[in-house]
Design brief:
By secondary structure, this protein is of the alpha+beta class. Helices cover 16% and strands 35% of the residues. Helix 1 runs parallel beside helix 3. The chain is elongated. InterPro entries: Caspase-like_dom_sf, Caspase-related_regulators, Ig-like_dom, Ig-like_dom_sf, Ig-like_fold, Ig_I-set, Ig_sub, Ig_sub2.
Length: 350
């Protein structure tokens, strides 16, 4: 409190029997000045741009020096959100339109401060569908891995909520028909769609060629395989994410005519190849004969790295395959559009 204060210093002598003043009175003047100031934000969350999945909760908050006169208001893309009047913003079951910039304004009679937050809303799939095609029995060859790979992939994907269709040993004509039929069967726009092929394949003038089981591998004809450009038809079902996985060789075959593509995808795409151009895709290394090398590593990663994005999962698979085969088989992956999707992303029906 403001005013004059006096201080007298005394000393006790002879065990407290005598009190003696040993100083003069000291006068202390205290002037208290009240400082009025605008609100001060102590902390805030989130501290950087945040991605929230559709259907989840969007939360932001600020912490300030306590002051009963403070008021809070929130804006979204400059539009006032009149229902939010505390230091916490919480929006349940977010949708696409909830993306953007949120601003918290903290005010008292002496001023105003603000803090902005950026939120990106990540869409979730309306469905999860997969077509798994494996060719293991050819006219003059039999592969051991594709049938086992199909069962392994089916088990892995159903764990994440995929509805899977398995088809084995198709001719080129049947393969083309079944792929188109599969895409046409997907009625949910915004789905996760995955296509897998395991079997013999080759590279034709930079075009990938999936060989049907009716082919003579000694002399593959143009009508005995399907170019992967057929997968571009997936656009007809307007997926949120399309994943193609090709577990086949890419050794060049110059006797066939290639089919080039200048496709501009209208959806997010992740394209995975078990090997790279002019390299083989191995069935097994050493004594592990149940799955192909690629599928063995895929199963390991997908069951142990559930929090990874799918793209990061595939990168980990590729690194494992490259290391095990000592560079003989070098998988590749490319992505177009967003790549932050997880196989575990929840289904949000339309």
């Amino acid at each position: 409190m403001e005013g004059l204060y006096y201080c007298t210093i005394q000393q006790l002598q002879d065990f407290g029997l005598e009190r003696r003043v040993i100083s003069e009175d000291v006068t202390v003047t205290i002037n208290i000045k009240v400082v009025y100031e605008e609100p001060r934000i102590l902390s805030y969350f989130p501290t950087e741009k945040c991605v929230v999945k559709c259907g989840q909760c969007l939360t932001a908050r600020v912490e300030v020096i306590p002051d009963p006169t403070i008021t809070f208001s929130w804006r979204h893309n400059s539009k006032l959100l009149s229902q939010y009047t505390t230091n916490v913003l919480e929006i349940q079951n977010v949708k696409d339109e909830n993306a953007g910039t949120y601003e918290c304004l903290v005010s008292n009679e002496y001023g105003e401060v603000s803090r902005s937050f950026q939120f990106d809303i990540k869409k979730c799939p309306t469905a999860k569908r997969a077509l798994i095609v494996t060719n293991s029995v050819y006219q003059n060859d039999k592969l051991n891995a594709p049938h086992n790979d199909a069962k392994t992939l089916f088990k892995c994907l159903t764990k994440y909520g995929f509805t899977c269709t398995l088809i084995n040993n198709l001719t080129a004509e049947d393969m083309e028909r079944e792929i188109k039929k599969f895409f046409q069967s997907i009625k949910e726009k915004g789905a996760f769609v995955l296509f897998y092929f395991g079997g013999h394949g080759c590279m034709v003038n930079n075009s990938l060629f999936m060989i049907g089981c009716d082919a003579d591998l000694g002399e593959v004809k143009q009508n005995q395989g399907v170019y992967t450009t057929i997968l571009e038809d997936v656009d007809t079902c307007e997926p949120l994410l399309f994943i193609s996985m090709l577990d086949m060789c890419q050794v060049s075959n110059n006797s066939l005519k290639g089919k080039q593509s200048n496709k501009k995808w209208n959806c997010n795409v992740i394209q995975c190849c078990a090997t790279s151009q002019n390299r083989v895709a191995l069935e097994h290394v050493g004594s592990a004969k149940e799955n192909s090398v690629y599928m063995k590593h895929f199963e390991k990663i997908i069951n142990s790295k559930e929090n990874m994005t799918f793209l990061d999962m595939i990168r980990a698979v590729n690194a494992g395959v490259d290391e095990e085969t000592k560079g003989q088989q070098r998988p590749s992956v490319t992505s177009t559009g967003r790549s932050d999707f997880h196989l575990s992303d929840p289904i949000q029906p339309l």
